[in-house]
Each structure stands twice: as structure tokens, then as C-alpha cells.
Amino acid sequence: MKNLIVQKYGGTSVGDIDRIKNVAKRVIKTKESGKNVVVVVSAMGDTTDDLVKMAYKINENPHKREMDMLLSTGEQISIALLAMAIQSMGQDVISLTGAQCGILTSSRHSKAKIDAINTERIEKELRGGKIVIVAGFQGINKDLDITTLGRGGSDTTAVALAAALKADKCQIFTDVDGVYTADPRIVPSAKKINSISYDEVLELAALGAKVLHPRSVEMAGRFNVALEVRSSFNDNDGTTIGEVNKMEKVLIRGISLDENIAKISVMEVPDKPGIAFNLFSLLARADIHVDMIVQNVNRNNVNDITFTVALDELQTAVDIAQKFAFEVGAEKVEYDKGVAKLSVVGTGVVANAEVASKFFESLYEIGVNIQMISTSEIKISCIINKDKGKEAMKHIHEKFDM
After folding, report:
1. What is the pTM of this model?
2. Cα-only R_g, the chain
3. Are β-strands 4-9 and 36-41 bridged in parallel, bridged antiparallel, or unpaired?
4. Distance separating alpha carbons of residues 3 and 22, to the nearest angstrom
5. What are the pLDDT tens digits along the chain (402 aa)?
6. How do the domains of the chain map onto residue ranges?
7. Which of 232, 252, 238, 245 is nearest to 345 (CA)?
8. What is the number of other CB atoms lying within 10 angstroms of the CB of residue 309?
9. Percent helix, percent strand, percent coil in the chain, to nearest 5
10. How far, in Å, CA of 55 to CA of 326, rounded?
11. Neighbour-count burial for 160-181, b at 16+ CB within 10 Å, e otherwise
């Protein structure tokens, strides 16, 4: 649809009644500028966390279908209250759940993927002059069951709607002014980035930067959705995300620190073909995302295999690794929750030897030991002790004069 903007407001932006009224004013201002507006909203503040806590007080192992039924209510509260606020200010508006606005998903509860969006209802309401408020993070499967999209699902909802509706732009409103060279809460000298490529921000998001969820950035790049990250608390210019001039000379675009990881080592694994495949296929079947992997040099026909996983998947991954170790005759499984992943991201990072040298020199200067290293065309990542993470992030930011 022409002349359309999709806006997404996170939980902090709608955290209380005053903030909901503030969002309502922003949405109306956009509408009065002559735009059609679709707004995607997250649950208020800590609502989702509070619902999860209640569920686990009732059942230590709640069924994922019922968890989706429960957690989807958080967004429904937000859209109803925002719609009421906009109505009170004299604008025509309608709130829609994921099911009502035609978001069709896979049947995998708690981690559903969007299969298709039937935009007919949304387009009808927009043609009628209404502002459309959509519940983020949720959809409906072929059995008409409510599903949720997992962490960062509201970002994904917004980008998917922008792609399906062929919106001019998708604006992500949050509690910061845009994408920064580092987390400004850790590095006060961090600078806002005016524009950044899909690939660079995807790496930053995947490596622990919390402004955008990786799935939403990946989708935006695939469907060429113009993204903008802005603050919901001021009118400052934000960060635009799209195709950036590759001739730009800036090598390092950002630094990220992910403290939500753990390291697992399977010790003295027999050195046989297919061993690594067996381990990682078991983890894949349990839908555990494995990040960095290191297998040491063979000695006495055995290897150590070390990999990292998200902290909330640690116990499941350890259970699988221990079962695997027993079956293949490995010595033992060790794990460490006291690690973090520190990364530098920028186009051409690996192609420039000076970047790697300065990165590792920075860690040496403050006595940080590197446990694992991973590189791609646009990033260098290493696993270090968590208690050194923030210090290392600040020092590297200063070292690269960002």
C-alpha cells in the first residue's frame, strides 16, 4: 500500500499509562502528516516476564501451547489500551490480534515462524481511514491455535507486515536513539551510527546488541524493507538501516558484548569420522542453536570439542552432550557459565590485518585471556571471562577511537 509507515513500539515505550498516551500522540502525529499507519506493539514493561513467573508457580513444566495462549495476552492488553488512548484523542482506530490481521505461522509453539500474511483485513481498515494497531509477537497456525514467535517477535512482526504491505518504511521505536557503536549503558562515549548496512547490523544483533532482533534484520534485508531505529522519548534522528556505500572508509562499525552465553566442552572424544556430526545433529534436533565451535588438534586418537550456546539452553545442551559422551566413550563434559562473547563488526574487518592486531593487542593490554576465536568477513569474535567483558568493551572502543 502506498504512503504507508509501519511503526513498532517496544515494551519500555508502552510501559505505563503515560507512556501509552505518549505513543498515541506520536502515532496521531504520523497519521496527520498524511500517512497510513500500522502500529505493532509489544507487551507493557515486564508483563511477559510476570506471566512466565506465574505460569511456573502453577506448573514447573507448562505445555508450550498453553504458554503461547498465556503470553499472547500481554500484547493484547497493550493494543487495546493504545487503541483506547488514540480514540480518546479523536482518531479512528482499530486493534487486531495476530490472528485477526492474518498472520499465519508454523505450528511450533513458542518459536513459530511466519509462513504467510493475509493483508486483506488490514488493507480494508486502512482504506476506511483507520489507524491499525497490531499485537506483535503472535500469530495463528493451521489448527487455529495461537502461536508466539519467540524472543524479539514483535520486531519480526513489524518487518513482516512492512514487507507484506509494501510499506515505505518500518520504524522501530525503542528507549535509545538508534544503533550505537557500543552499548551506551556500558560505554558512555559510544556514538550513534547514522546509517548502517543490513549485514553489519545483523551481525551486531546476532552477537548480543539488543536494539534489534536478528530475525527481523534478516527479513528486512531479504525483502529490502527500509528500517529506521528511533527513540520513543524524543524527536532525534535515528539510525537508518539499508544498503550503505561499500566505499565508506569506516572499518569498525560497532562493538558488542553478549553475556547470555555458556561454553560446553566434551573432553577426549574418539577421533572417528562422523563423531562431530552425531553430536551437533542431536543438538539441532533439540533446536539448540550452537554458535562458536572449536575442535582441538588430535592427540592419542582423541579430541576435545568445545562450543557455545545461549544460557537459557545450557541445561538441555549439557544433558544431550552427556548422553552423547557416554555413548561414544568420551571422558567427560564440562561447562562454564562465566564467559562472554566480545565482538567487533564492520565491512572488511577480516580483510584488514591491522584490525585483528589492534583487537587482540587491546585484550592483552588489560590482561584478558582469549578462550575461543571466530571470524567472518565482517566480524571478529572471541570468548573471554565474563567478569572482564565490560572493561574489555570500553578499552577496545577507546583503542579504535570510535
Report:
1. 0.80
2. 23
3. parallel
4. 23
5. 789 999 999 999 999 999 999 999 999 999 999 999 999 999 999 999 999 999 999 998 999 999 999 999 999 999 999 999 999 999 999 999 999 999 999 999 998 999 999 999 999 999 999 999 999 999 999 999 999 998 889 999 999 999 999 999 999 998 888 888 888 888 888 888 888 888 888 888 766 666 788 889 889 999 999 999 999 888 889 999 987 655 445 568 889 999 999 999 999 999 888 999 999 999 999 989 898 999 887 677 889 999 999 998 999 999 999 999 999 999 999 999 999 999 998 877 777 788 889 999 999 999 999 999 988 888 899 999 999 999 999 999 998 887
6. 4-175
7. 252
8. 23
9. 35, 25, 35
10. 34
11. bbbbbbebbebbbbbebbbbbb
CATH classification code of 4-175:
3.40.1160.10
- The answer to whether residues 30 and 37 touch, using CB atoms and an 8 Å cutoff, is yes
Sign of the CA dihedral 173, 178, 179, 183?
negative
Sort 300 into a burial class: Cβ within 10 Å, 0-12 / 13-18 / 19+: exposed
- Residue with the three cell numbers 585483528: 356
The amino acid that residue 292 corresponds to is: M
Residue partners of 392: CB distance under 8 A and separation at least 6:
257, 342, 362, 363, 366, 368, 384
Cell matching residue 35 = 500517512
303, burial (CB in 10 Å: exposed 0-12, middle 13-18, buried 19+): buried
